[in-house]
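Postdoc handover notes: sequence design on the structure in folder B. Input tokens:
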């Protein structure tokens, strides 16, 4: 389990190799890389600036990662989230999950991304042709997170009970 919040870009291949090095119990690795899009809500984006409070952000990312490791049998996990000014096409976030089996790796990666979108304390400002504006939370992101609650029919505990 590792968390990094940084302004620098990252290399997906080297991060993956470093995470799994020497662990022959790993049978599946899932990576997700989020990129800055050039369009949002019909407007062209020239840049996105991400701000955060370091201690608060790192604490929340660690809590989210701990939850993933408690819910799925992960051998390793990594979250890298960038901050600062980023342009379209640049990498924002990297999530890597590694497990003995693919289902746990896939589900944990989805869980981490859904929770990062709604719970990670980052503030995003988009520079558009209409000026700069703060990005508001989306109901669709909250809906995606809901599927992981213990009351959801798709929660890991409910799925395990059916099997």
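Designed sequence:
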């Amino acid at each position: 389990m590792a968390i990094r919040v940084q302004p620098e870009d990252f290399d997906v291949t080297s991060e993956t190799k470093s995470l799994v090095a020497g662990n022959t119990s790993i049978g599946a690795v899932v990576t997700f890389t989020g990129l800055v899009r050039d369009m949002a809500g019909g407007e062209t984006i020239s840049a996105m600036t991400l701000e955060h409070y370091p201690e608060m952000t790192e604490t929340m990312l660690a809590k989210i990662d701990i939850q993933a490791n408690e819910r799925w049998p992960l051998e390793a996990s990594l979250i890298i989230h960038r901050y600062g000014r980023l342009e379209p096409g640049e990498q924002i976030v990297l999530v890597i999950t590694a497990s003995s089996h693919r289902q746990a790796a896939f589900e944990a990666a989805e869980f981490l991304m859904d929770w990062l979108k709604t719970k990670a304390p980052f503030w995003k400002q988009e520079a558009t042709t209409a000026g700069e504006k703060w990005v508001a939370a989306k109901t669709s992101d909250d809906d995606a997170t809901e599927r992981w609650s213990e009351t959801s029919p798709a929660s890991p505990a409910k799925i395990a009970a059916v099997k």
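Context for whoever picks this up: The two ends are 28 Å apart (CA to CA). Don't rerun without checking with the PI first.
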